[in-house]
Amino acid sequence: MDRVLITGCGGMSGKAFYNKFSKDSTVKATDININEHWLSYLDVRDLEEYMIEADKFKPNVIIHLAALTDLEYCEENQENAYLTNVIGAENSVIVAKELQAKLVYISTAGIFDGEKEEYDDWDTPNPLNVYGRSKYLGEKYVVDNYDKYYVCRAGWMMGGGESKDKKFVKKIIEQINNGKKELYVVDDKLGTPTYTKDFANNIYELIKTNYFGVYNMVCEGDGSRFDVAKEILEVLNLTNEIKLTKVDSNYFKNEYFAQRPSSEKLINKKLMLRNLNRMGNWKQGLYDYLKNDYYDYVKTK
Ligand SMILES: NC(=O)c1ccc[n+]([C@@H]2O[C@H](COP(=O)([O-])OP(=O)(O)OC[C@H]3O[C@@H](n4cnc5c(N)ncnc54)[C@H](OP(=O)(O)O)[C@@H]3O)[C@@H](O)[C@H]2O)c1
Q1: Which residues line ligand 1 (CB under 6 A)?
Q2: How far away, in angstroms, is 159 Cα from ligand 1 center?
Q3: In this structure, is the dihedral angle defined by the CA atoms of residues 94, 159, 17 and 28, taken in order, positive or negative?
Q4: For 38, phi and psi rounded to 5 degrees?
Q5: Domains in the chain, start-ordered, CATH in brackets?
Q6: pTM of this prediction?
Q7: Is 132:110 a contact under the CB 8 Å cutoff?
Q8: Fewer CB within 10 Å, N side or C side of the chain?
Q9: What distance in angstroms lies between residue 106's CA and the mean position of ligand 1's atoms?
Q10: Average pLDDT of the segment spanning 172-177
């Protein structure tokens, strides 16, 4: 039976990891934001405490989810962004090495510059913003300083539900619940949505192997932000009630001032070559996510 230490497990992906891994492993789920009874406090910036807690628990797997994920916050708080996303990742390497645990580091499609239409596992990163740079530096440290690692790069994350989702799906749902009858959505940003349940399940399978390395891990299919919004309205049967209007990114330049790549599309080349690609289609993931986490919430408003 595995002993799995998860950092940053109180966020939008954390519950999917907790649910999957606690079925057959002993899990110590940690975060600085204690929003579940099964979480305990661990700040990945504090190496001394991290080492003490890990040494007590003795994990053979560490899943490093902890990060600051708000792009605008990272632009405005660079010191904390680098401390959390880079030094925090370095601390996980030091702890994993000491305990000889397998280490999973979650990276992002946002490490690429969007000059290409899509990126495989071997393309060269060139991040455009502080968040992307900090995640890439974390990824690079893991790769350069440890051998038993899996770096898994996610796309536009969908998960966490009403209370934890901080990203696009939640932002659209919030506007719907606030009674908006017209939504303005960009169609000049492309990506590959990533359902947190698929992501946690695929990582669960990957770490059973010793195929250490860097993996793109996104759902099948791609689209623009507009396509995702359109799909949300379709699943919720709201296409006749709410109008969707396409805009370009300039429309939101004050609110979302961090520079973003025009394409963050990833392909799971290595997972496919290893016959380990278990990611479903993003539309199916979105459907499951909305039905499980949002349907009643939206319908009762
Ligand atoms: N969300 C996405 O679209 C996306 C896409 C690609 C990759 N990723 C990566 O996926 C991983 C999981 O993120 P997520 O999607 O679940 O986002 P999230 O909801 O922001 O989760 C990250 C969690 O880490 C916590 N955290 C922040 N600083 C910490 C620290 N010093 N020590 C311990 N925990 C800390 C956060 O707490 P607070 O809420 O208090 O900050 C939050 O609970 C991250 O590594 C992220 O970079 C995310």
Answers
A1: 7-8, 10-14, 31-33, 43-45, 65-69, 84, 88, 106, 108, 135, 154, 156-157, 164, 166-167
A2: 12
A3: positive
A4: -90, 5
A5: 3-161+192-221+264-280 (3.40.50.720)
A6: 0.97
A7: yes
A8: N
A9: 9
A10: 94
CB-CB contact of 249 with 186 (8 Å)? yes
Minimum CA distance residue for ligand 1 atom 40: 33
Quote the radius of gyration of the chain (alpha carbons, Å).
19
The predicted structure's pLDDT at residue 298: 65
Please give the mean pLDDT across all residues of the chain: 96
Angle formed at CA 194 by CA 188 and CA 195, multiple of 5 degrees: 135
Residue 301 pLDDT exceeds 60: no
